What we know:
The complex is a heterodimer of chains A (64) and B (210). Chain A is mostly beta strands and 64 residues long. Chain A starts with a strand and ends in a 5-residue tail after the last strand. Chain B has one domain: Rossmann fold, CATH 3.40.50.720.
Amino acid sequence: MVQINGKAYEAAGKTVGSVIQELEYDVRTIAVELNEEIIPKATLNQVTLKEGDVMEVVSFVGGG
Amino acid sequence: MGTKEAFYQALVKRHGAENQKKFDDATVAICGLGGLGSNIAICLARVGIGKLILIDFDTVDVTNLHRQQYKFNQVGMPKTDALKENLLEINPFIKIETHQVKLTDENTSSLIKDADVICEAFDNAECKAMLTDIVFTNYPEKYLVSGSGMAGLSSANDIVTRKITSHFFISGDGVSDVNAGTGLVATRVMVCAGHEAHMVIRLLMGEINP
């Protein structure tokens, strides 16, 4: 199991990029944190999730 | 009588000599000089941060005055110039570098390279995400303090600072989107700007938690 934003998913073995797509996040307005590191966007499809990983997708909202 | 020494001693008295030395030695980049950025800059100038790098492409508009730290007589000026003028009136000893440009994938990395801490203060969600990506792709050792969710008139107490990683912090309620019909209001934007500025000074002091 992989924890994504506090929920458990059967996502081990999948890439971060494919999971982001499956969960229908807009990649233009998010930052992806995996095990307390920010994953550069250019490498989302190269990073494979492992059993026990903890991921957070931060969705930014407008205003400043 | 205001002298540089008196100004500095007043800061040392309140922040402690050790912290003040750290603030004085620090460089902070502020990306976007709207409601968040202009308020963050004023806080950091008052605290005695040594150097600010101010980045914004825009000019002051009359519709900015309800929440941004500009004056009626500055309408039409580049925000970089207007804010520099206002900051130097408060703290004439601060070093200020200005860049009147739109930050892009190409130019951002070089403009922020000297900063110890970067404040994200854009209006647009895509720009917030872009800056996060650029900072942690190029400078994983730098600190980034960002703002997300401060529009509208709901409780100011919903605004918090969250630690996302050891180097990435986000202030805001995370959900109040300016595009959801609620405009930006001076008070709530200032609360969020205060959170961001306070996280900056905590990081400079060596405090790594919000």
